[in-house]
Amino acid sequence: MSVVESKASPAPVGSGQPIVNDFSITIGTKNGSGSQTANATVLRALFKMGIPVSGKNLFPSNIQGLPTWYTIRASKDGFVARRVRAEILIAMNKATVIEDAQKLESGGVCIYSDALGYTPMRDDVTFYPIPVGKLSSASGLEGKLKGYAENMVYVGVLASLLGIELDELKNALMWQFKGKAKAVEPNYQTIVAAFEWAKENLVKADPFRVERMDKTTGMIMIDGNTAAALGAIYGGVSFVGWYPITPATSLAEALDFYLPRLRTDPETKQPTYSVVQAEDELAALGMVLGAGWAGCRAMTSTSGPGISLMSEFAGYGYFAEIPAVIWDVQRMGPSTGLPTRVSQGDVLKTYWLGHGDTKHPVLLPGSVKECFEFGWRAFDLAERVQTPVFVLSDLDIGMNQWMSDPFDYPDAPMDRGKVLTQEDLERLGGKWGRYRDLEGDGVGWRTLPGTDHPLAAYFTRGTGHNENAQYTERPDDWETNMERLNRKFETARALAPAPIEDRVEGAEIAFIGYGSVDSAIIEARSRLAAKGIKTSYLRLRALPLSESVGDFVRAHDRTYVVELNTDAQMLQLLRLDTPELATRLFALNHNDGLPLTARWITEAVEKMEA
Amino acid sequence: MSVVESKASPAPVGSGQPIVNDFSITIGTKNGSGSQTANATVLRALFKMGIPVSGKNLFPSNIQGLPTWYTIRASKDGFVARRVRAEILIAMNKATVIEDAQKLESGGVCIYSDALGYTPMRDDVTFYPIPVGKLSSASGLEGKLKGYAENMVYVGVLASLLGIELDELKNALMWQFKGKAKAVEPNYQTIVAAFEWAKENLVKADPFRVERMDKTTGMIMIDGNTAAALGAIYGGVSFVGWYPITPATSLAEALDFYLPRLRTDPETKQPTYSVVQAEDELAALGMVLGAGWAGCRAMTSTSGPGISLMSEFAGYGYFAEIPAVIWDVQRMGPSTGLPTRVSQGDVLKTYWLGHGDTKHPVLLPGSVKECFEFGWRAFDLAERVQTPVFVLSDLDIGMNQWMSDPFDYPDAPMDRGKVLTQEDLERLGGKWGRYRDLEGDGVGWRTLPGTDHPLAAYFTRGTGHNENAQYTERPDDWETNMERLNRKFETARALAPAPIEDRVEGAEIAFIGYGSVDSAIIEARSRLAAKGIKTSYLRLRALPLSESVGDFVRAHDRTYVVELNTDAQMLQLLRLDTPELATRLFALNHNDGLPLTARWITEAVEKMEA
Amino acid sequence: MTAVSAPKGKTNKLGLEKTAYRGLESTLCNGCGHDSISSRIIDACFELSIPSERVAKFSGIGCSSKSPAYFLSRSHGFNSLHGRMPAVATGAVMANRTLIGIGVSGDGDTGSIGIGQFKHLIRRNVPMVYIIENNGVYGLTKGQFSATADMGQELKHAGVNELPPIDLCLEALAANCGFVARSFAGDPKQVTTLVKAALSYKGTAVIDIISPCVTFNDRDESTKSYSWGKSHAERIIDATFIPYYEEITVDYEPDVATEVELHDGSHIVLKKLGREHDSTNRLAAIQLLEEAKAKQQFITGLIYIDEHRADLRDIERLPETPLAHLPESSLRPSKDSLAKLMEAMK
Amino acid sequence: MTAVSAPKGKTNKLGLEKTAYRGLESTLCNGCGHDSISSRIIDACFELSIPSERVAKFSGIGCSSKSPAYFLSRSHGFNSLHGRMPAVATGAVMANRTLIGIGVSGDGDTGSIGIGQFKHLIRRNVPMVYIIENNGVYGLTKGQFSATADMGQELKHAGVNELPPIDLCLEALAANCGFVARSFAGDPKQVTTLVKAALSYKGTAVIDIISPCVTFNDRDESTKSYSWGKSHAERIIDATFIPYYEEITVDYEPDVATEVELHDGSHIVLKKLGREHDSTNRLAAIQLLEEAKAKQQFITGLIYIDEHRADLRDIERLPETPLAHLPESSLRPSKDSLAKLMEAMK
Ligand SMILES: Cc1ncc(C[n+]2csc(CCOP(=O)(O)OP(=O)(O)O)c2C)c(N)n1
Ligand SMILES: Cc1ncc(C[n+]2csc(CCOP(=O)(O)OP(=O)(O)O)c2C)c(N)n1
Ligand code: SF4
Ligand code: SF4
Ligand SMILES: [Mg+2]
Ligand SMILES: [Mg+2]
User: What is the mean pLDDT of residues B120-131?
Assistant: First the structure.
């Protein structure tokens, strides 16, 4: 045990060599105690010091009082996945301090509030107790706000111990409070006071340091839900029907925030969109289908329980062929599960949502940048293929803070798909059939309601219909229609974003992954490479699976499918798509509610390869 | 062309040799015109003449006016699957007579009402026009009832041409009208009048005959939905929550009919059950889960759209581990599809209903007898494994008439599963954990609400929970719980009805099938055998798949998976369960809304084997 | 099969004959109340010279919900899911503000599975005509009780209903509906007038029309039967509808009639028949329904109208151009704006 | 975290202290109205000497729906799905007729996603206490509008609400509810009395309790805030509950009070306070709600009671033994009966 106050300059395990820009910090607090600002300030300051970082919130399904953790990872090598154990703990919660400290990496650091009444219990960790209450007085804030200031204390102490630049902390506060000095000042005062206190009272006894570098120049920092909302806005979303649910709520709220700013007609000052909070998810998707049918780029966002409720409408959209975009920001588990924990458990569900031979294109963004890109691309695909398109994000990618290159402006005009206008109909003499496959891609031409031509109308239904959208129960009509729908699905396969491959010469084993596990795979590959194990990597970006996946699997002896769920859902789809390669594919799935770590992957692969 | 009136004794193709007890009859009428009684009369008379028969209703989604067909198959060899083309057509519907006649088997017979204004147009068919209006007057019935009598005319004519015994027709009427002479008489009069008229006016010019035989002795005739309802009643169902939907409605209505008769307490005259018509399917399953949780044997029945709506509650039931039985009488297609057409399109949906790693045991009755058997067994399984159990029937098995051996009385007492009573709790000193796996089968012990012990209560939730049913977000609790659920699923695998195998010595190819395609497979195998092609057959009766399936597949070069859906859904599950055998399994799926025929299977196999 | 609404030869202001407003041949039962309502919709649209192309027809599932196929063939139709028509209609009429929404639903579709969406549609005041073809029974699934079935009502298979009926007009009022009417399929004149008024109303206009199911619920004792309707229907308010392009020529006593001006300049003249009722008074409307219920009376007419509620299009401040017609230039913000955003996130 | 309802040391007729009725420590925000309602449920059950073991607690999803964990730990609880508590409760109380159902829901859970099940639960008159902890906001998802949010209500992120609120008492009345009450979490005495009366009522007893969300909707202007409630709550009817085992000792003037006898012999004495209202008159109840709404008044008390409606257990003619306890001999018909059936099908 080493408590700095009691013993000067201890030599904790692993000290000696300074460890620069390469550690994880866990901040353990109580929910609703206002630590977000402090956490974000540290994160941003490190980021602006040029150090690659990521910030992840591990929070409970609660508004106030339950334990919550925030982790910040700084990595000179640019690895941003979660780590199993942090090197640095900021302990602000009495209820969890003992367990939290227990989980620290050996050689780590524990900065704790002396108000916790905690007695350090490990020898291999450096402990710094801090008089949080006293120091937070420096802010001059009172009452509820004082609680917020208490969190600034840890920021100051941390800055002092690690060498975080005070200027960058101030900038970060300015950025967060949008330059409002009145908000910035008291907080900054607290930071400085704590910084000074630490400088005077704490003897640095750990190896962790930060140093300015230049690895984040030009990069942005954002969460996936905001990125998705922006993508949708640049994709021209004009109708949103949604219902609140964690962790998808912030996507709709980002739409609510940015739409007025980006999509108000400069002349009329009127919105070029409509957002309706529905009474539930059945209604949300119903509205979206109504709007998509009438010609809007329409979307909704939800999570597991909402997806379940959307089943019937999803099948309707598939069969009546209505464009729609549905974001599923996945959370943990069957039923209500754990609303504030991450999982990739809805792969099979969204792919086959509905009943009676339904299937949907599913996009799989692997980064915030792809959240933006798929945010607009999903509309092109949905309108081009005239079908609901799902986008599977998850809590980790959606709600956590990620560095990214700035987003690229859409590189092509909108594809509004096959729509016949009044003029087209006049040219055709009104001869057309809603579900006629003229181009062989399975996609028919549609008209929008309101088209001013006496033959423009057709009747949309979820019951059997023929080429002309007429009701039919004829067996041959049914078969023809289902065959065309399958043809259409092949069109979607070709149009959907292709996987991204990194085939490594001489690699016997390979990874397939998707979504938020990307960062952990990248890091795991680097670790394995360091041990001499070469690996290839294919990152899936959409369902139906690209045909190229088979080649990739064939090129390796064993391919591990990395995913965050219990039933190895993507593995199952891969096996179905390439039955002849089924036995070359192996499950590397994990599902404990937390973002995946490189360590878990590395250890699992080593075990399986042994 | 051969119209009997115009030309005596023609020699239609295929005549000469009489064809006895081996043909299909199609009766084409208008919906709502009251032909059911006539059809059922013919069916029953043939059945009571000892001839194996089946009766299938191919009806539209309409109450009155649209074309509808009924097919009766008589088969001395006992084959009861649908046939692609009928040999005999009773044409009573002007709207379809031309097409119906076109579809007749060459060498067939067309009996048509002269009121249709139809002119025969085929040379290879024998035509018998009949003066329906005139003959129906014999009934003495007026108005709406006269319409019913018109159908009896065809019964009489058919009886005369085929040699159906008048006595059996009368018995059949008596049976249908529960002996009410007032109803029987006018109908029977019409039959006799038409019979006589035909004898005098028609010259028999076709080869089809019936002759009494003894192949149905002791057998019953019933539809699958009634069988299922009876099964549930003998399984002790005590709560039913349901919502009307074709083709599942008749299951609930059979419960409504038989429950008062079989389950009224002889002393108190009170029901020992409760049936509630819910406001929709979400509520129906919600009620069932509430009742199952409280200790009832609770069930619901629905079809595709209802299954979609039940998604969220199904996932809840899985995760909160509540026994429930859900019948899905499958109909055609995604969305509303074709409510009066058959399909097996909900295999994947029910198996994985919910979101986030959910899966359910699914029973697959292949006959009306199994509808009865699984009707009661499903409760044993659901309570034993404490989980929702699905039973996948379909429109063909559920709504059509099938011969069967009488049902067997349940051969074991009810298995109410692991329930702790007040006395148990006293014995245990109140020490127990709802989700503790004491026996290693993954199934915990539950208490029922109302149990009079201060420690009996636990809190049921769809959120994360530990062994003691306490809320938890701990990663290890989550993993432990999901592992136990998987263990439980293995328990279900072992307890679920095993497949039925017929391995044939020297067979290179094999069939796997389930549900209503059984009859077509049986007939197809016989046809193939006649051509020297030996085949084995495994009929699946439940999911998760039995481990024995792998052995079966391994024992054959090629296994064809026969099913009625577009996406070859069971094939997919088989491939997933036996990835190493994935390439030995082939799709033999068909999906046009009609019951499968042996001819389709035979031709498809021959093509694939070529 | 019945062809609904025979042509008349006359043309309307668009130069169209009534045949131009017809739909496919009905496949409902002969004599089904729903078919006569389809004819009234045809009449109303013809008489108001509504361009069919601008109408969007919505329905759920049921015999009633099949009706949109049997009127206005030139209009786009959306036969949605059981009980979920309101959501679909909401999306569509918001997507294109020029659309005139006509929804047809059943008592099961609206009162049983769909009551939630019904209430929320009304709460949002989504501009559309919402017609309930109320027969107290599930027709299409062959005769089960719906939520509007009378207590004591008997059906062949389902037995006797022991639950109280939901009154869909009262439900609409409770949800703040601004246009609530009740009528009877056997009263063609009144149905036509009400449909016309509803078509000019800006907001959700609910018309609950008793529409007998001749196959499953037409016994004389049933309050949803033809004979009961014929002998009991009591017109409480005579609503004369005067389109904006016609002058008000009717003469009426100011104390027995009220005139309501609609947003498009049309007028509804409400004339009291016999009994005291003020259709612009919400509480009076509720009272009327409650009293009629207590006395087993079948009152018809425009029960309540409030022409002042903002509809969802107003609330959402929709631009003049329909959202569905906005060009890419309005939908996709500039490259520059993205660059600025990215800068701010650095 | 707050421990709700502190123990008192006294014991009730079952010899239990109030602590025996406690639940887990609450994880709701400090000062949340929901916690005080949990305390009142504890008080009511304690005072009525209700055996916790016979209580089944139900809820949907939301902060409010978490509450059942915070009272009556000795009772089985079923925290179901968002908006779907009514169905689950229906199944459970039918399965075991001896269960006393207590449901706790939120305004979002009941008024938004759950309004359909709410209406149908009431229509069936499923015997249970249905408490709505109404804060006009979605607490658990952090501050969106629910269907009971006031028009003009402002929330931090969601902006200003432009839709009219649903009045859940009016909705209950429209659906024929036989016990409709409104109260305020800040009026402990009234809440306790109403919960006690509801517990003795045979049928669905709805209590809509304004229960401030201190985190997301407690501004003074909000009609769901503490300060608004405190300054506006007007007790319109004082309902004194007298359990069957106590004598009526209260003295009251017959013209200002009415006495209602419940099926178990308990009594409710309804005393008018100030304003005229007859809680046994349905139309008067509706009128009261409508008028209060028009005048922005917050009236509390037992708004309506009808002790004569048959509940679903009656309608279904449940046997005396709970269905869940019936032995195999009652559940499985005899072998002989099957043989006979089979014979008839030959
Ligand atoms: C989700 C779902 N459940 C059940 C059905 C079956 N269904 C079709 S129509 C109908 C009832 C229709 O009743 P109503 O709305 O009164 O219309 P009506 O036929 O009486 O005009 C039902 C239950 C369905 N189509 N979808
Ligand atoms: C199907 C589904 N959709 C959305 C959610 C997310 N959700 C949880 S609670 C809640 C709202 C709760 O509001 P209310 O009932 O008013 O309860 P309060 O938290 O205000 O007490 C929502 C939308 C969910 N759990 N399930
Ligand atoms: S069943 Fe009833 S509702 Fe349906 S079409 Fe026939 S008469 Fe109309
Ligand atoms: S967020 Fe509001 S409703 Fe939820 S616990 Fe906190 S105060 Fe109560
Ligand atoms: Mg109806
Ligand atoms: Mg709320």
Answer: 95
Name the nearest CA neighbour of A100 among A82, A86, A119, A116: A86
Most A-contacting residue of D65, D140, D146 (CB-CB within 10 A), to test interface: D140
Is the CB of residue A331 less than 8 Å from the CB of residue A399?
no
User: Which candidate, B415, B450, B432, B595, places its Cα nearest to that of B518?
Assistant: B595
For residue C26, the ligand closest to its alpha carbon is 3
Phi, psi of B586 (to 5 degrees): -125, 145
List, for residues A147-159, the tens digit of each pLDDT value: 788 899 999 999 9
Q: How many CA atoms lie within 13 A of A525 on its CB side?
A: 24
CATH at D56: 3.40.50.970
> Rounded distance, CA B191 to CA B154, Å?
8
From CA B102, how far away is CA B121, in angstroms rounded?
8
CB B209, CB B172: distance < 8 Å: no
Amino acid identity of B520? Answer: A
Q: Is the CB of C135 under 6 A from ligand 3?
A: yes
Joined tokens for residue B584: 């030995």
pLDDT of residue B6: 37
| Kind plus residue range of the DSSP H or E element containing A529 | helix A518-530
Cβ-nearest to D144 among A62, A277, A335: A277
Identify the H or E element spanning A67.
strand A67-75
Contact status, residue B392 vs residue B541, Cβ threshold 8 Å: no
Query: Nearest by CB to C163, which of D115, D124, D286?
Result: D124
Which two tokens mark C336? 């520059």
Give the C-alpha separation, D200 to D206, whole Å.
Answer: 13
Q: Of all protein residues, whose CA lies closest to atom 8 belonging to ligand 3?
A: C32
Question: Phi and psi dihedrals of D179, rounded to 5?
Answer: -150, 105
Cα separation, A578 vs A553, whole angstroms: 9
The answer to whether residue D28 is domain-embedded is yes
Query: Chain C within 8 Å of B144 (Cβ-Cβ)?
Result: no
**Proximal ligand: closest to the CA of C214:** 3
| Complex-level ipTM beyond the 0.85 threshold | yes
d(CA B13, CA B108): 8
Three-state DSSP class for D325?
Answer: helix
The pTM (predicted TM-score) of the whole model is: 0.97
Nearest to D215 among A63, A249, A305 (CB): A63
For the CA of C111, the nearest ligand: 1
Task: Examine residue D247 and state whether it is found in any structural domain, yes or no.
Answer: yes
pLDDT-based confidence at residue B498 (cuts at 50, 70, 90): very high
Distance CA(B454)–CA(B430), nearest Å, equals 8
Which residues of B fall within a CB distance of 8 Å from A579?
Answer: 575, 579, 582-583, 585
- Dist. CA C48–CA A98, nearest whole Å: 77
Structural domain span for residue D292: 22-324
Give pLDDT tens digits for B17-64. 899 999 999 999 999 888 999 999 999 999 999 999 999 999 999 988
Within an 8 Å CB–CB cutoff, is residue B102 touching chain A? Answer: no
Q: Whole-angstrom Cα distance, residue D313 to residue D318?
A: 6
Q: What's the CA gap between D127 and D200, in Å, rounded?
A: 10
All structural domains of chain A: 19-209 (3.40.920.10), 222-404 (3.40.50.970), 422-495 (no CATH), 500-609 (3.40.50.920)
* pLDDT tens digits for range B235-276: 999 999 999 999 999 999 999 999 999 999 999 999 999 999
What chain B residue is nearest to C108 in terms of C-alpha separation? B279
Q: Which of A36, A64, A258 to mutate to test the interface with D (most CBs of D within 10 A)?
A: A64
Neighbours of chain D (3+ CB pairs under 8 A): A, B, C
Q: Judge whether D340 lies within some domain.
A: no
Rounded to an integer, the average pLDDT of D304-333 is 96
* CB contact residues (below 8 A), chain B span 312-371, against chain C: 335-336
